[in-house]
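User: Run a structure prediction on this.
Assistant: Running it now.
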Amino acid sequence: MMNSPWDKDDDIVGEEHKSLNQYIREGLNHLLQEQLLCDTTIVAKGERFPCHRMLLAAINPYFRAMFSSSFRESKDGEVLLQDMEPSIVQAVVNYYYTEEIALVPEMAQDLFVAASRLQILPLLESCSRYLLEHISPENCLSLYQLGFAHSDPDLLQEAKILVNLHFKRLSIEDKTFPNLNPSTLISIISLDSLVVSSELTVYRAVWRWVMAQSASRLPFLGQLLTHVRLPLLTQEELRVVQSELMCYRDVRLRWKRFNRQERLQRSGGLRRGMYSTCIICVDLFNMEGPELKTKDFQVGCFDPQAETWEKMPLLKCLYCARCVAVGDKLYVTGGVHTDDSYSDTMHEYSPLRGRWTQLPSMSVARASHGFLACNQQLFAMGGWCKYEDYLDTAECFDLERKFWAPIKRMPFALSHFASAALRNKLYLVGGVTDTVGSWYASRKVLIYEVSFDTWSQVYLDNECYWSGAVAMNNGIYVIGGYFRSRTRHNERWSETGNLRCTRKCFFLGEDGQVDRRVTIPRLPIELAGAGVVRWKHRIYVLGGENTYMYNNLEGENEEEYYNTVYYWELGATKWVQCQERLPFTSWGLSGFGCTTMKVPKKPILELFRKTSVALTAIEVVNP
């Protein structure tokens, strides 16, 4: 039986039509397999790979320039790639014809180098993505060298993170380290972010690299050691270095007696591993006792890693002050003195000096205000300066030029708000104001854009004040506080009030809107006025209070204060209570200043707190 013409048409309609690109690629691959019309040959270590110069030239500028010029390869039809392995060249040729590549760890780095050299950008991007997905402490040093040599910023950045963390082990154990080229080695030992507790680790790494091929590398020693921070070596470490170097007559040591400031300037700063990031609490005191003026106000330093507290030098007796840290410097502004006067002062604390220094004062006295750091500037915003006198003024302090300047006034007077800085914006969440003639809690987020000196406002679902806030994960985490839901925007807070202390926490996106996709577990207890800070990937909550009505007829409040310390790890399902509590207080405390700061470790502090001789340079003479 003969098929109907319609059957034939149905077959034609059912076929999947190929694109012109598919026809060209399949045709070129067929020509390669059959060795037809091949007009050039790539040669790698004696192995020959026939191919078509038109295809090579069409894909990248490397071969285009080669075949369109008077180079030898254009005339005799052979391209020599003798420093590449034949297996790599074979993979590259296959990629040209099929756009397929089988990346495996054994070949990925060599293919990355080949793609970079031959300027095959799609292949280079594929190799880079593969290497990023497979980066580890075991291969980070070789990938750092690749990213550095081939200007791949993503690969370099990810490898740098691991090199920083594992530098000591890598410099001793990794087989790649002795084979680093000098420029790559210099780029590594120049990093501030190396996690080394002693500069002796960096010196020994350089020494091992030089001794691996001492005959050819000794001339590099002087140059390399200019990037080692020799003034950071302790007296014991200096003796080790001196005894090692004195064996070489071609090496000359230079010494100088340094004070603290000279040592810091000459060294170029501390490495990341030379300090600990700690939580600083300003004006901790014991609330028990008859009079506040008799209290001993303390500055406490909490190391979350060890869960230990240490005392720092006293500042002065005041409460409701605010503090912020920039690097290893702590700044404290405002507050209320024990005689009920308000402070406009600012003090700076440097752990390397071990003392407080008074800086220029703010334009007005403030307490319970916002105090944030952004772009080497400090911002003091709002607060109050006497009972029920709220402030709408704000000002910034330039850390380099050391002076205060006013910024645009806030949309309304505000105090007792949560605050955080994120990407050149300052966020003030909730707070207390009196713009309608009596106290009420705000249900707004005020956002100040540093670059444009402008304020904007976003509404919250609830009135709130005395919360805490930290910036993390591209947004603002708001923790605890006093809350009340309202349907109207300007509901007054009555004298009896019905704001309740809460366990609630929520997340604000960069636009200031609540993002309910981000979940935060409720606090273990209701609290407000706590010290809330970010430490690494954790949020810590220290102390706090809970004021609640215990007699509705008489309208009296009962206050409960806490000395507990809790933390929440990003992604965890609950808060964890630390064994350590707030020091210097057996009852509890709220409203104190709290921030995180880089605190140099004890050997570094001891080094900087005395004048001593330091090694400043090592010269190689007539190597």
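The chain is about 25% helix and 30% strand.
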